[in-house]
Amino acid sequence: MDAIILQILNGLDKGSAYALIALGLTLIFGTLGVVNFAHGALFMLGAFCAVTLSRLLTLSHTVIDETKTDFLGNPLKVDMPYVNDIFGPEIGSTIIDWSVPLSILFAIPVMILIGVIMERGLIKHFYKRPHADQILVTFGLAIVLQEIVKYYFGANPIPTPAPDVFRGSFDFGAAVGMDPNVIIYPYWRLIYFAFATVIIGAVFAFLRFTTFGMVVRAGMADRETVGLLGINIDKRFTIMFGIAAAVAGVAGVMYTPINSPNYHMGMDFLVLSFVVVVVGGMGSLPGAVLAGFVLGILESLASMSAVIDLIPGINQVIIYMVAILILLTRPRGLMGRKGVMEE
Amino acid sequence: MLGLRKSDATLLLFVVAITILAPFILNPFPTNSAMAQFNGGYPDLMQRFVIFGIFAIGFNILFGLTGYLSFGHAAFLGVGSYAAIWMMKLLTMNVIPAIIISVIVAGLFSLVVGYISLRRSGIYFSILTLAFAQMSYSLAYSVLTPITGGETGLQPKNTDPRILDTLFGGGGAGGRANFFGLDMRDSYFWSVGDWSFVFNTGYYVAAILMIAAFYLSIRIFRSPFGLMLRAVKSNQQRMNYTGLNSRPYTLAAFVISGMYAGLAGGLLVAMDTQVGAERMFWTASGEVVLMAILGGAGTLIGPVLGAGFIKYFENIVSKINESILQGWFAALPDGLSDFMVAVIYPFIGKGWHLTLGLLFMLVVIFLPGGLVEGGQRIAALFRRKPKDNDGGMSAQATPAE
């Protein structure tokens, strides 16, 4: 029982990442009708926004610290980040410590900009081309983006720690009245889950309760009619692409403490996210979120030793097996709408 | 000739000539000259040209004709490789049984995968094939380690039974992969002046198989069966309305292209007797897609060109390093040469994938018909008469709504 709860918790953070990426993919597909193979690269770019910001914040110059001496008795040279000069040592070190959450503020405008440039510059020209062409060109774009990142940041994972406060673990069992020290769970993963919930809620609320969101939903249902009503739907869809990119980006930012970012992390997530989208139902936003969490948790449950003893290797293939089963029995996915991408 | 139209026969003869003369064509520069690094005529690379040519030809039979974009073809290549290496371990180091079995096993595996995946089309089909390939890859890495060797992969060992070899005495060419005693790694070197040409046994075995595979693909393209496949691409719905069930045709195309992939996998083992699971990773599937598109999907010669192009540049461009680059621009003034080196450096050596990705995007955006279409456009510029829409131009036929 404890093990099951622990695995469900473990599945939540992976599920959150799947859900966020799948949400963005579905937004793009639902609005623009484009299958975006570069979406994993956007997730990766978001993660590297965090790396960039933390590097910018720790840019430093050497100063001579009179109060300390090295073993020869000379005054010690220390690296002094510019942030400390500006804000003083106290606030400066706090800012550096909190670089990952701060990166969200940095990543959102950057990712929206990247998304809009991508849509206006490239994807716009592919609306009328077959889906195979869209897959291929975004696949090429993904290769290019990840190679550029590899060129500037190298091929090795770059550790990007969470703020000091969140580095510990949370004794989940004790909190809900079970034996202590059984279900222990890192704080940051809980935060990731909460963060994902907030972002998903925000996207849904935005689409549901704002006029902009209403127009976008109308455009998803019938683009032509909305256009005939004199609304510039293309512009709104471009903004939605930016938002989808930002969602993938912040998902990447917050994921950096869980998994040190490297240039191919996007591709690793992309393949699974596509499976998630297809399982959830192409074009269905709730489906994408639901499938993301379900598959994340299933993957965790399948890696319990009891399950692996029963069916060896199941943890490696469970997601793909579920996808194959779903596609064969419910071709539209869990919550797919009728008439979206059928044959 | 051979039941081909005249233009196809010319194309076949052209391919035959190129593959036979490849050691000369690929080694145009004298061995000690500065340009020698552009020589592609060494056995390892030449073998890759023809083997990946076979792989791409097979992929093109599925994607080029039916429009079904499979993202999991590397799985069949990998399965073929594993089957081949097991034949070598169990029966004989002769490559014939290995190659035959690799084709059969890959065919059976693609029958299973195709039977399930082809129930869906479009993006769903791509995802399903991707899922199957990733599943095979993960399984080969983890649970199936007793069969696949897991991370270390498989190589022939001296302790292998090799029943046929022991039965008929000897292990052939010292336990190396051979063709009735001809070692696949044997090469004949011919030096003419400053030039040196290599004639490799393995290359010619693979080349003969590629010519056969190419001939078969011409026959498939021109057959009624090929027409059916094109009908699937242009309008499957209308085809169904006329009372034709398209699935047997697409399944047959899928299995045939799976068998081509298996043949390529078997040949890879025949040339270099080792297998690892990374051969089945989805980037490997992506690579064959790149080859077919870059060369020209749906054309006969395109995939072969694409495979040759990618493998050549992969090997040659990725070998260029900064000092070679500086050597090239040494003649320019200092500032300019540094600038040129700085501009070009990200695209060469380890940055080869960046070049490939950019090139691929450019091809998809501007030249959907690939290199073949590019060549035709250039030819049309010089010819100044309306292009004939026959033969290889079918790639441009976009599916009707």
UniProtKB/TrEMBL annotation, chain A:
Main location: membrane
GO cellular component: plasma membrane
Subcellular location: Cell membrane
GO biological process terms held by the UniProt record: amino acid transport
CDD domains xrefs: TM_PBP1_LivH_like
Keywords in alphabetical order: Amino-acid transport, Cell membrane, Membrane, Transmembrane, Transmembrane helix, Transport
TM annotation in the entry: 16-35, 42-64, 102-123, 190-216, 237-258, 270-298, 310-328
Pfam families referenced in this protein's UniProt entry, alphabetically: BPD_transp_2
Topology of the protein relative to the lipid bilayer: Multi-pass membrane protein
A GO MF label: transmembrane transporter activity
Presence of the UniProt keyword Secreted in the record: no
Family affiliation: Belongs to the binding-protein-dependent transport system permease family. LivHM subfamily.
PANTHER family hit by this protein: ABC TRANSPORTER ATP-BINDING PROTEIN (PTHR11795:SF442), BRANCHED-CHAIN AMINO ACID TRANSPORT SYSTEM PERMEASE PROTEIN LIVH (PTHR11795)
Protein name per the record: ABC transporter permease
Source species of the chain: Ahrensia marina
Taxonomy of the source species: Bacteria, Pseudomonadati, Pseudomonadota, Alphaproteobacteria, Hyphomicrobiales
From TrEMBL, chain B:
Transmembrane segments: 9-26, 46-63, 94-116, 123-144, 201-221, 248-269, 289-313, 325-348, 354-375
Keyword presence, Cell membrane: yes
Pfam families for the chain: BPD_transp_2
GO molecular function annotation: branched-chain amino acid transmembrane transporter activity
Record bears the keyword Oxidoreductase: no
Name the UniProt record assigns to this protein: ABC transporter permease
Record InterPro entries: ABC_transp_permease (IPR001851), LivM-like (IPR043428)
